[in-house]
Design goal:
This is HK97 family phage prohead protease. By secondary structure, this protein is an alpha+beta fold. It has four helices and twelve strands; from the N terminus they run E-E-H-E-E-E-E-H-E-E-E-E-H-E-E-H. The chain has one domain.
Length: 228
């Protein structure tokens, strides 16, 4: 198969994916500092660091590297400012417990940050908003996850710790939500990357074709020897 392979939504159905890299990239969230004498209700941090590969294990136990490329969410974030499209902040991905929204400016992203997807949430003054603030302040909740739809990714073969692996670079995606989460590690049973499934199928087919080519060549050699 080719060393590099690019997929877009033209050849793949859109499906929401969720990732939580905090345990692998060291990117905890925190309660932001407030003016002296005031109590901060803003939390924030990095949802992901750009161009920083993480080993992903899918539901079948197969491993690959994955990274979010710098600029991956630029178009998605720009649309929020231009036409009012909305990205939500949720508590543990629970749509019944919203924490903020780009529409109301209670969820904000630092688009000039080239290190990663940096965000701030102004927490609501309600039960779960207060719970999230206290949990982040105490360190009980120290990570965040993000949900996205991949619009374009690129696959390549790389060496990682002495092993040849596939690497997926998500180069363009629609950001749907960010969520402070109780558990920092992703659940491999929930990883269902159709792009990787297609890559594995392509590799299997390429190996099958290569075996057929070898068999055909051996038959040609045998015929040539018989003629002699």
């Amino acid at each position: 198969m080719p060393e590099n392979n690019t997929h877009s939504t033209e050849d793949a159905a859109e499906i929401q994916e969720r990732r939580n890299y905090v345990a692998y990239q060291g990117i905890p969230i925190e309660v932001r500092a407030a003016a002296e004498g005031e109590e901060s209700r803003t939390i924030g941090g990095y949802a992901v660091k750009y161009n920083t590969p993480v080993v992903i294990t899918d539901r079948w136990g197969d491993k690959y590297l994955e990274e979010i490329a710098a600029g991956c969410f630029d178009e998605s974030l720009s649309r929020c400012k231009e036409n009012g499209s909305e990205i939500k902040a949720l508590w543990n991905h629970d749509t019944s417990r919203p924490l903020g929204s780009t529409k109301t400016d209670t969820l904000r992203f630092n688009m000039g940050d080239t290190t990663g997807l940096n965000y701030d949430i102004d927490l609501p003054n309600n039960t779960w908003g207060n719970d999230v603030r206290e949990s982040v302040k105490r360190g009980d909740v120290d990570g965040s996850s993000f949900g996205f739809i991949c619009l374009e990714d690129k696959w390549s073969k790389v060496q990682h710790e002495g092993e040849e692996m596939y690497k997926r670079s998500v180069v363009k995606a629609e950001l749907l939500e960010v969520s402070p989460c109780t558990f920092p590690a992703y659940d491999s049973s929930q990883i269902n990357c159709r792009s990787f499934e297609r890559m594995k199928a392509d590799t299997k087919e390429e190996k099958r074709l290569e075996e057929l080519r070898k068999e055909a060549r051996l038959l040609e050699i045998a015929d040539e020897n018989n003629k002699e």
